[in-house]
Amino acid sequence: MTLAPTSTTARDDDPEARPGRTPQPAEDRRAHRLLRLLRRPLSLQGLLVGGAVVVVGYLAIVPLGYLIHDTFLSADGSGLSFNAFARAYGGNSQSGEMMLNSLWFALGSAALALVLGTALAYVQVRTDTPFKGLFFAASLVPLIVPGILYATSWIFLGDPSSGLLNSLVFKPLFGSSPINIYSVWGMIWVQGLHLAPVAFLLMVAAFRAMDPSLEESAAMSGANRLTVLRRVTVPLLRPAMISAALLMFVQSLESFEVPGLLGLQNGIYVFTSRIYFVLRAYPIDYGAAGAYAIGLLVIAAVGVLVSSWLQRSSRNFQTVTGKAFRPRPVELGRARPFVGAGVILYFLLTVVLPVAVLVYASLLKYYAAPTRKTLSQMSLANYRAVFDMPLAFTALKNSLIVGVGAATAVMLLTAIVSWVVLRTRAPGRRLLDLLAFTPIVIPGLVLGLALSFVYLRMSLPIYGTLLILLVSYCTRYLPYGMRYSSSAMAQMSPELEESAAVSGASWFQTFRRVLLPLMSGGILAGWVYILVVSFRELSSTILLYSPGKEVLSVLIWEQFENGQFTTLAALGVCMVVLLVVLVSIAYRLGARFGLQSDSAN
Amino acid sequence: MLTVESLKKSYDDTSGRASGRRSDAGTRVFAVGGVDFEVHDGELFTLLGPSGCGKTTTLRSVAGLERPTEGRVTLGGRVLFDSKHGVNMRANQRGLGMVFQSYAIWPHMSVFKNVSFPLEVMPRAKRPGRKEIEDRVGQVLEVTELGAYAARAATKLSGGQQQRLALARALVTRPELMLLDEPLSNLDAKLRETMRFELKRLQRELNLTAIYVTHDQSEALVMSNRIAVMNQGRIEQIGKPREIYTKPATRFVAEFIGTSNFIEAKVVSVSGGEVQVDAAQGRLVAHGVETAPAVGDTVLISIRPECVDLSRERRGDVPNEWSGTVLTRAFMGDVVDHIVGVGDLEVRNRSNPNLSIPPGTEVHFSVAPDKVTLVPVD
């Protein structure tokens, strides 16, 4: 459920992108520029830019600093200690199993999503398959059906006793109930399906950016389709596949919804659910939670390292030329109806069925398989209950406040940061870019924990208010905002600013009257996107909210914890409807401003 | 050797993919609207035309990368495509060599691997042994002067070298027919000139049969044995370069290749290959006209600027002599152009730069009767 923000300048193939490299020949001039920038700290430009740098640095670094500090320092402040790690990982055999589960779950989901997404992208871009429109409809699922609802739908479908697939399909046909969604396999299935559209969109972009004559020339050389695929297509797509795989891996690793809903039932723990569990126990062992969080960060970091090491070998070629190609589609021939049936099946299984079962459940008093009796008892009672729930409106209001606030703050901040990164030669701008990109690998739960460390100890009265959620969302969605802002900025010719400067406009006037209006399309699209994803944020929220300050996603989680599945379903349907509206606005804007594939992520 | 018969390729307009001309929405658009030609053994046959004329679609249909809507393509005795009998051999089974406009060098392979690929993917029965593959790749790399770069990553080559690598890869299987899709258009002007002769030399030495697609008329004139000039999905004229240039069959050909003066005229007499026409500005005689028009027909006269003999004095003893006034003069280094006004007609002359007549001067010019070309009015 992300676009894959790539750091704007710090591309892998750019040797200069590595911070801390040996000084460049231009270093003197840079130092000079830094001096000049510092010498007039009171100019508006200096203030804005400096302010943006400080805010980004603060958002990206401070929570992690506190997390590490509080985990490694013993409670009495006597010095470095590994007690927290001993408490977390030692003494129980569960921790080894938990780590294995985490890896297994993350790798499995990433593999499923990547295989499915790549295959779908190939079929969509490169063949004459029917129902091409359905692919993109299916790719909207992760945007409009949040993970927590998707997992709930699959509980309705795959519960060993009451799940529809068991009770309606397998039991009558085969006399057994083989599907158990409360297993690692079930978690992989749900998480993989939920992520597959993201992999799909990334791979569609990769397929489209690949010069089809590279494959055609292989065909002209006498290679058959399979050989072309094996020896040309796949090797050329490797870089794109590796970065997609990394994203899938990190996203699965940090997913809380799926392991929380499906794993906890059977005592299957992963890092995220373990952190949650530890924080729910009494007395709360913050050190142990921190130790888990650091373990999670280390695994994510290892993932980043492994993928950049894998990328290294393929860095010497570039398949993405920036041109969009329109390759001749492969004719499926006799396989076409089968592929078409497969597409329909995929669509039914991943979109129609989960949404339909959610709607179905929302109309029942108690969840059960449809029989004459249950069907006759269907009513809108749950919706009435939802509308009568005073908390529901508070939660909606809170969600809106935090979402709008985060979207506005992030887009303003990233507009300035992307200007610094792309338009100035300020020293450290690459580091700034990297900092703004860092939160993408910080799991939401880890961020939540780190922020609670910060504001429990700091005297700022933020803890227990909506403000802490705002800070968390701003951090989490910084990379996404950067992607929108910098692509809007990159599309604009620097001459537009220069001509404003020549016309006598000050920097601020130029920024406000030339840059912002020209970027407004991209910024607006990014704004709506962040609003949409804020609505479904659960993994950091769940550690940071306080009673009375619930947002919608937390409210859904509470229904789950209380076992009120049908109310949850009704609430979920309302949320889906709301998100459909927001996403269609995002799409409108995206289409208008040429950011369609971005907003679809 | 290669025969292409009534080849047609149309697209649904809704798909918006057609590179050919567009018509109203919802109708089918013809990128290629019925093309016939034959390529002889050992000849370099060029499809020449502006972008969107269907030349690349035609080439790709021969290659098997595009499925034509109608027509028949045969190579030697083999039917590659026949819409009537539902034959459509796959591109990888046609055994052709192709050089792409973008070169399509595989960036993840070395120079050697790029060239050995076509041999490695041959059916097991025909696949040469490892030693032979090495020998053949070595030979081809020698011929294309890439021998020293065999181990290098393909992306580390310069533009000209990549172009030769693409050629080497297409040559290595010794295909019956080579297809070249604007292979020189991505090179800079100087290199393009050199590669023209290089390519021509290779083609002649290896006795290659090739179809060459280009929009560059001078490239086509330099390299081809025969040229087919295409426009809007149809072939306007097929002929040797000199024929195409001196005897354009249509106004399009005359306009597309070189520059021409066009004068509308009425036929007043026809005897054998000699035709007399009357234009508003005077009478003209044309010799060697192959398809004679009827008396009274309106025709278009095409005269190349370099066939206009310009002088200050009236000579009187030459045919087709007209008088006019110099309007402008343009010095271009190796040649000089004078635009001469005859009434409201402007005639372009191209001469040796020694000649220079200031605007406003009264001048006389003549055109040799065999340089006067009749083009049907379209």
Overall SS class of chain B = alpha+beta
List the chains of the largest interface with their residue counts.
A-B, 27 and 32 residues
In order across it, which strands form the biggest sheet of chain B? 7-8-9-3-10-11
- Uncertain runs of chain B: 14-26
H-E order of chain B: EEEHEEEEHHHEHEHEEHHEEEEEEEEEE
Question: Any idea of the CATH topology of chain A?
Answer: MetI-like fold
CATH architecture designation of chain A: Orthogonal Bundle
Q: Any idea of the CATH class of the largest domain in chain B?
A: Alpha Beta
Mean pLDDT of chain B: 89
Domain count of chain B: the total is 2
The major pleated sheet of chain A works out as: none
Oligomer: heterodimer
> How many beta-strand elements of chain A?
0
Task: Characterize the largest beta sheet of chain B: strand count, sense, and whether it forms a barrel.
Answer: 6 strands, mixed
Q: Give the CATH superfamily of chain A.
A: MetI-like
Blueprint (SSEs and pairs):
The complex is a heterodimer of chains A (601) and B (378).
Chain A: H1 27-39, H2 44-72, H3 83-89, H4 94-126, H5 132-139, H6 141-144, H7 147-158, H8 164-174, H9 184-209, H10 213-220, H11 225-254, H12 257-263, H13 271-280, H14 286-313, H15 336-362, H16 372-376, H17 381-388, H18 390-423, H19 429-437, H20 444-457, H21 466-490, H22 494-502, H23 507-536, H24 541-544, H25 552-561, H26 565-592, H27 596-600
Chain B: E1 2-12, E2 28-39, E3 44-48, H1 55-63, E4 70-75, E5 78-82, E6 87-88, E7 97-99, H2 111-120, H3 130-143, H4 159-171, E8 178-181, H5 189-205, E9 210-214, H6 217-223, E10 226-231, E11 234-239, H7 241-246, H8 251-256, E12 261-271, E13 274-279, E14 282-286, E15 298-303, E16 308-311, E17 321-331, E18 336-342, E19 345-351, E20 362-367, E21 373-376
Parallel strand pairs in B: 3-9, 3-10, 7-8, 8-9
Antiparallel strand pairs in B: 1-2, 1-4, 4-5, 5-6, 10-11, 12-13, 12-15, 13-14, 15-21, 16-20, 17-18, 17-20, 18-19
Helix pairs in contact in B: 2-3, 2-4, 3-4
